[in-house]
Amino acid sequence: MRRFPFVTLDVFTRKPLEGNQLAVFPDARGLSDAEMQALARETNLSETTFIMPRGAASEREHGIKVRIFTVAEELPFAGHPTLGTAALIHKQRGDKVVTLDLQVGKVPVRFSERDGGMFGEMTQRDPVFGSIHSKEALAREALQCDPADFDHGLPIQTVSTGLAFAIVPLVSVAKLSSLQFDYKRAAAYLEKTDAKFLYFIARDTEVNGNPGLKSFRSRMIFYNGEDPATGSAAGCATAWLTQHGVIASEEAALIEQGVEIKRPSRIYICASKTGDSVRNVRVGGYSVEVVRGELEL
What we know:
It is built from seven helices and 19 strands. The chain has helices at 33-43, 56-62, 79-93, 135-143, 173-177, 183-190, 231-243; strands at residues 3-11, 20-25, 47-52, 64-69, 74-75, 97-102, 105-114, 117-123, 128-133, 156-160, 164-169, 197-204, 214-219, 221-222, 225-226, 253-257, 265-274, 277-285, 287-296. The strands form two sheets. The chain has a 17-stranded mixed sheet that branches. A two-stranded antiparallel ribbon has the order 14-15.
């Protein structure tokens, strides 16, 4: 009988039972690829991560090796698994900077005391801006909505900081919340594009306890349902918001996600822009531990 400890965390929240759930296996040595995929199906969360410990010298040079699985596939990068896994490692080791070695390369997560809690902020890869999507085609083929539901002043554009999302701006939070989504139709549309998923975003005009901080609401729905928080997509959206002048270079902002499914998440964002180049994309938030257990195989 093999035993593997695991921990679950709620990520992008300070309140247990909110945010996005994550299962982490702190020592996955001895698990095969097929077993990791099966365990991700067993947890049935948006993602499950597997830490592969190695020597201290190797971890200092290359980072801590982590693999990320959804219920259906291994991902090269994902945001809330990166933040949550790094938060668990920070709690165990106390390092102020935890660098994860992911398929996309090294991703550093910096931790600091903020408002009485431990705040983690990941620096994502510099963005790659892809194609501009036709609003009429997206409305007709994927969403069956009115093209007027999209923000006319902003493009629907593919952006990647490790995973490609089409950033879809809606004209209001009301349109965002009432969005009718059929994943099969959306998947058929996405197969013809350079994006893997759609990320819907709208400006939030309510203060929501954050005076002076620009706020946005978002949704991301994929083959495992609606995602309470999508840190990788939030990084893409941050780059897109900065590129198109919605937020200024180095301006902090907030994205709230998961409201429609009663898993509210708060994602803090910022990026730099010099000329036409967006870089230093940061996505941050809090994480709380919820469950500790042991798996027997």
